[in-house]
Specification:
Radius of gyration: 21 Å
Distance between the termini: 14 Å
Order of helices and strands: HHHH
Number of helices: 4
Number of strands: 0
Strand content: under 5%
Shape: elongated
Length: about 80
């Protein structure tokens, strides 16, 4: 994997790490309630989007049921990578 491919695949994680380090260093330097609130807001903003945008996963039992029905079925595969 080339460095460009690595950055392309992991761009959100890299940007999130940079932002988290910045917010943490700001919170440690100022040590105020406002900076702590900023750190919490940044942490929530970094954690929620990947969880919210993650593709839904169907169970294998549902796949077995559709395949056992004896009817033609279209199987669509999706990967976040």
């Amino acid at each position: 994997m080339t460095p460009f491919e690595f950055v392309n695949r992991n761009s959100y994680g890299i940007a999130a790490a940079i932002l988290a380090v910045w917010a943490s260093s700001y919170a440690l330097r100022t040590r105020s309630a406002r900076s702590l609130a900023l750190l919490v807001a940044v942490a929530i903003a970094l954690v929620v989007p990947p969880l919210w945008l993650r593709s839904s996963q169907s169970s294998l039992g549902e796949l077995d049921r559709v395949l056992a029905a004896g009817q033609p079925a279209m199987l669509e595969l999706y990967s976040d990578l």
